[in-house]
Design goal:
The chain has 325 residues and is an alpha/beta fold. The chain contains 10 helices and 14 strands. A 7-stranded mixed sheet has the order 1-2-3-4-5-6-7. Bound molecules: zinc ion (ZN) (2 copies).
Amino acid sequence: METRIREVWPGIFMIHLPLPMRPTIVNVFLLRSGDEWALIDTGVNSSDSIQTLETALQAVHCPPSRITQIICTHHHPDHFGTSKVYKEMTGARLYMHQAEYERSHFFAPQERPAEAVNFFYASGIPIDRFARVPTPHEFWAGLYVTVPPDAFIEDGDVLHVGDMEVEVVWTPGHSPGHCVLYLRREKVMIVGDHLLPKITPHVGYFPGGAEDPLGDFLASQRKVQRFDVRMVLPAHGGVYTDHRYRANQIIQHHEYRMGEMLDVIRHGPHSGYEVASQVFGFDVDSPVTVQFPATFETLAHLEHLRHRGLVDKHTRDERIYYRAR
Ligand SMILES: [Zn+2]
Ligand SMILES: [Zn+2]
């Protein structure tokens, strides 16, 4: 097997792990200082991904037992999905933000809660057409096999890997407890899904989530701009340098999207699903993997516009409609 590990900074290794869907790769990172190693994020729980990681560890002569810490940026399957296997393989302490651990229960085997079905209906999703949309558990199945963290991390915490100082920076938005990791001496930032070079991460509004996730996300973009960063290590895509420039692009992208959505609802009240279908250009026959995320993403924008006082919403026949003020 081709070795998919590369030392991107002295003591910092990037590993490409395969994913069964787009994006097709997640980057996880190994930190090394002296004899101590730490793993940042896990990939999904597939034999392909686990084998790739094992081969990478061998290539850099890292016995799994030397990995003393596993830090997950957030709870999504490509970042936390193999936590059980790696916890058992290494004996490391596992760290993640508490809000992420709470969200991870969303992937537990369960009937779809009535709250979610009502929310889909209220958002204008034609749910009769999607009677058998899989639950998160059904969709991810064995790719998500996790253990509870040994400790929760919070904004400003500093973890030590040998001489390395790893500062936790809480960056809610993509998920409520997402954290990026700032290596203080190296001025290297491991950004998870927060600040990707080519794509923008999903920011969605759904039941049990944040009230204004896009507002949180935009604030978190401004927050990371305050750090002095020499290298950005994203979970998807290549290494890059100008994090402030990229954060501005991402902020502008969402401002533009909000402008498009305002244009739609200036013509009259629309449900989240109706706005999404116009802005993202799908119809009821498009894949559900397009329609659902696009609707949640649209709702995040509409709710942020509402928090800014530019949009109202009202309920009619158990459906929620947004209109420009
Ligand atoms: Zn994610
Ligand atoms: Zn990801």
